[in-house]
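I'm stuck. Protein, please.
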Amino acid sequence: LKPLQWLDKNRLKQGHTRQIFLLTDGEISNVNEVLDLCRSILNFTRIFSFDLGHSPSHSLVKGLVRTTNGRFVFIPPNENVDIYVGEQLQKALQSCITDIQVKWNINTTEMHAPTKLLPVYANDRLIVYALANDQISTFDPNSTVESYTDQCRLCEANIGRVPNMNNDRTIARLAAKVLILELQHAKIPRTNTESSLQVRFQEYHQTSATNSEQDTTKEQIIELSLKYQILSSCTTFVGVEKRTDMSNTGMILRELPIKIIVDDQPLQRPHSAKRHPISSLTSSNGLNIRCLRKSA
């Protein structure tokens, strides 16, 4: 962790980025701690990770890519490392635009997704969503979308016509998925404690200090997940059978109804569900969601 901690302490000036090449053999036990530290440097650092050996750490390598907008490659055993490093080096030398902001000139309030934009490199795409909170206001055909940095305006997109309205909720669900992933990988700020505290009390103090932030993030994830029917770490449950005997005595079969979805559309739609139109820029948030609750 010391190299990553040094990067966190020695930050770059605004408008500059840093490229890091990370080689690992997959034998890492503190993956979550490494990813948590990388989230604090994602605004100015991009990590190119190389996993060597027979036991690659997929959670670490792919987690670094999601966290720092980098690239990864799994190098098989007995392969020439120089070839893979050379390919990634060409990508690392590409120019980029930092500190990008997007302004939506529409006649309603909106929620951006993602809320923080990473540096954009050559041949990369920048996809930004806006979820409208107002269901009553009509779409203005003269709306514009601007992207700019601290130095100048990059571009402006004019909407010359009203987009086709549809009810498939695809745009809204894509935006909700981006927000959920951003919340799941968000870094919870830690509070500094005095060095005189013992280790066991220091850990307890840090945990209690971040409980409120974690609870707020969890509530936001659950709300978005239920509202837009997107799976998340807070709404996905796994049951594990821990019995040692092979007897089925006392077991009860319970059937839980699950919506079967084809092409993002449920085969059978409940009569009480209300549908609201969405456009390519805005979407309704008045969805009627049914959820199953576990009885006490």
